[in-house]
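During the no-cost extension, the postdoctoral fellow (Dr. R.K.) reprocessed legacy sequence entries with the updated structure-token encoder. One reprocessed record is reproduced below for audit purposes.
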Amino acid sequence: MTDIVLIGPPGVGKGTQALVLADRAGLTHLASGDLLRASIRDETVLGLLAKTYVDSGRLVPDELVVDMMVDRMLSAGDTLLDGFPRTVAQAEELEERLGRVRRRIDAAVLLTAPRLTLIRRIVGRRSCRACQAQYNTYFAPSRVEGICDACGGELVTRSDDNATTAQLRLEVYDNQTAPLVEHYRAAGVLREIDGTGDPDEVAGRIAASLSVAAAEPKVGPP
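Re-encoded structure tokens follow.
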């Protein structure tokens, strides 16, 4: 089995690369937020339990999130974890659960980019109200400002795609994720990848970094 963790700050292009990597490597893409919403929607046992926390405005406990992720991983085979784990505590709990079934984290891929680039990617995002085509005013603008090239629809900005919120999201990421990065670095499985440039170039860097992953240490019991 192959299990890879994908880490990256808001705006680094993690969502794009997750889909590319999962497709190229034959991995099942597991995004924790999507999985949580699907479990609640489908009224699974774990989903119904998680719903009690969500409905009351409380955070879903780490133990329950790990339960959902591991349950899905065991039925999925080779996986790419996106948005999870977010903290060292979650990572350690995940490793303990995987160890029970003789699985380990093979690699943790960290996508990086300069702070200014991340902020521009966030605040410059635009999407077509009609067809959902994506643009960025800094890196991939539409030919006519505010108008979709594909269908002529209106381009809109998400309410949370502003400089203030972007800074806050990046600060939260830094506070939560810096220890997690060091956790995987200490374990010898971290792959730090430059997330700037053309998406295909970034995908190539990721693929090259993972080509040696099998020979490197892995997180978890032997």
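The mean pLDDT is 90. The domain at 3-114+169-215 is CATH 3.40.50.300 (Rossmann fold). The remaining legacy entries will be reprocessed before the final report is submitted.
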